[in-house]
Design goal:
With 167 residues, the protein is mostly helical. It folds into 2 domains: 1-79; 82-167, no CATH class. The chain has 6 helices and no strands.
């Protein structure tokens, strides 16, 4: 299995990704014009199933990737625990970043901008659900953690790029 994935893994993943994107785009562009009319203008309707395949495929691929990463991580750790320390340190740092994002996020819906309050109101009425301050804090914290990781990745690219010039 390792030899197969080592030889064909990237091509297989790329092919699956292209296939999923192609099916998703075909399902969107083959929809009736009436569906697109409900997605535009001031009286937007958020009740459409045009994006369902893309959402389900994304969720499915995320579950498969998570399971594979977990399985291969456990196998790697079991085979060489001393070499896995860097990975564990990375997971701890990632957990700290997520904790910082969640801790600093705002959970008060009333304190948000009118645009966000309007989006929350549209979401709750179209989905017939409630949106609590905890939901807002979780989403805001995840976005903040993602932004922190983007900034850290750009900084590391710059630092290691400059370091590579002088090596």
């Amino acid at each position: 299995m390792y030899a197969f994935l080592n030889k064909y893994g990237q091509a297989l993943a790329f092919g699956i990704g292209v296939l999923v994107v192609a099916i998703f785009l075909i399902s969107i562009f083959s929809a009736d014009a009436a569906v697109f009319d409900t997605l535009q203008g001031d009286n937007r309707s958020y009740e459409t199933d045009i994006f369902n395949f893309g959402m389900y495929a994304s969720i499915g691929l995320i579950i498969v990737a998570f399971a594979a990463a977990l399985l291969f991580g456990i196998v790697q750790f079991a085979s060489s625990p001393k070499e896995s320390i860097k990975g564990l340190i990375g997971l701890v740092v990632l957990g700290i970043i997520v904790f910082i994002g969640y801790s600093t996020a705002n959970g008060n819906i009333a304190a948000e901008t009118p645009e966000i309050q309007k989006a929350i109101e549209k979401f709750t009425t179209s989905q017939e659900t409630t949106f609590s301050g905890g939901n807002l804090k979780f989403i805001s914290g995840a976005i903040l953690a993602a932004l922190i990781m983007i900034v850290l990745s750009i900084l590391s690219l710059v630092v290691f790029g400059i370091r590579g010039i002088f090596k």
